[in-house]
Design a protein that fits this description.
The chain is of the alpha/beta class. It is built from 17 helices and 10 strands. Its EC number is 3.1.3.16.
């Protein structure tokens, strides 16, 4: 993901500026096609400054904001486009997609209904309407059964021992049901050759890693000696070959080469299953030296929209996706090194006064709420100016350097490490 500048305020178009605005839109479209969304947003914004009454410019910028997970800005632009031109169908599309990403499925469904009424033969519109309608019904069902005290785990319905590995399967297998370094090396080569791990092995890994994660604190606390190091990696998002490249450059995980992977392991990329099972395998192999923290994409809402749910169902089964969902709920939310460095996927909090002890007390084994400390740890972003502001993502907040300074002082920390945004140089010290 990339950072997004706040949309500039509209100004009346200058005389003779309409042609220039169209040229800027064309440039922005070219950047968008090249997946350079930051520059696409920049040029759409310039076009809007010259001609702020063109709904298409807002609709296009809304889509660029969606690509960078700036859902709040995307929703604002799509809403503006629809207000300007009630017949601009793409505006309804964009607004629906924004609301879907924000978990506002009923609002999204209303816009998809509008699109389907206007374009009854549009297959994509029908598919999105049906998908959204299915989620709305599913959420209603979940609310209806939420009162059940004993939610049955997928693990309870599995009979892994009865699963047979066919003779023709020549891929990696767990040794006596356990992950070994030999298994991990074979698994990475197997995945590199774009082959699928047997479902029995996948289930074994998931069941075992759930047990390991469920015993961890919400805030994992790690001690390093002065001579020791640990490598922190940001979002991998289903990019399996990038993961292999990290290990090639920095060495395989081991007890002397520990790692922290800071969330967003899945979605977007085509190899999310391969990435997450590799990471889970190393967690089982080195439980005290290989650490995994939850990101905002280790959640049902994101997985339904950005591909992981569909990928698991295509490669395995719906039941396995449900188990992945359960496992994700047990991922810790933060990690503290030597009591001085705090690591989380998103960032700091919407309110002052949050302590490390407050983080420890978070009941994490759930889907994240729309607000509060758990939401903030997964979703918030820093901003250059002091104070707090509304999030560009439409979830949580943006926090300034003064907020960071106060948090560090109150909790006797030196600094924080977070992910959640792409940095052109790979990382940024702010």
């Amino acid at each position: 993901r990339t950072e997004c500048a706040e949309p500039p305020r509209d100004e009346p178009p200058a005389d003779g500026a309409l042609k220039r605005a169209e040229e800027l839109k064309t440039q922005a479209n070219d950047y968008f096609k090249a997946k350079d969304y930051e520059n696409a947003i920049k040029f759409y914004s310039q076009a809007i400054e010259l001609n702020p009454s063109n709904a298409i410019y807002y609709g296009n910028r809304s889509l660029a904001y969606l690509r960078t997970e700036c859902y709040g800005y995307a929703l604002a632009d799509a809403t503006r486009a629809v207000e300007m031109d009630k017949k601009y169908i793409k505006g309804y599309y964009r607004r629906a997609a924004s609301n879907m990403a924000l978990g506002k499925f009923r609002a999204a469904l209303r816009d998809y209904e509008t699109v389907v009424k206007v374009k009854p033969h549009d297959k994509d519109a029908k598919m999105k309407y049906q998908e959204c309608n299915k989620i709305v019904k599913q959420k209603a069902f979940e609310r209806a059964i939420a009162g059940d005290e004993h939610k049955r785990s997928v693990v309870d319905s599995l009979d892994i021992e009865s699963m047979t590995i066919e003779d023709e399967y020549s891929g990696p297998k767990l040794e006596d049901g356990r992950v070994t370094i030999t298994f991990m090396k074979e698994l990475m080569q197997w995945y590199k050759d774009q082959k699928k791990l047997h479902r029995k092995c996948a289930y074994q890994i998931l069941v075992q890693v759930k047990e390991v994660l469920s015993k961890l604190s919400t805030l994992v606390e790690t001690t390093l000696k002065e001579t020791e190091k640990i490598t922190v990696c940001g979002d991998t998002h289903g990019q399996f070959y990038d993961l292999l490249n990290i290990f090639e450059l920095n060495g395989l995980p081991s007890e002397t080469n520990p790692y922290i992977f800071n969330g967003d392991f899945v979605d977007r990329g085509s190899f999310s299953v391969e990435v997450i099972l590799t990471l889970f395998g190393f967690k089982l192999l080195y439980p005290d030296h290989f650490h995994l923290l939850r990101g905002n994409h280790e959640t049902d809402n994101m997985n339904q929209i950005y591909g992981f749910e569909g990928e698991v169902k295509a490669k395995y089964t719906a039941q396995m996706y449900e188990l992945f969902s359960e496992v994700f709920e047990w991922l810790p939310l933060a990690q503290c090194i030597n009591g001085k460095v705090l690591i989380m996927h998103g960032g700091l909090f919407s309110e002052d006064g949050v302590t490390l002890d407050d983080i420890r007390k978070i009941e994490r084994s759930r889907q994240p709420p729309d607000s509060g400390p758990m939401c903030d740890l997964l979703w918030s972003d820093p901003q250059p100016q002091n104070g707090r502001s509304v999030s560009k993502r439409g979830v949580s907040c943006q926090f300034g350097p003064d907020v960071t300074k106060a948090f560090l002082e109150e909790n006797k920390l030196d600094y924080i490490i977070r992910s959640h945004e792409v940095k052109a140089e790979g990382y940024e010290v702010a």
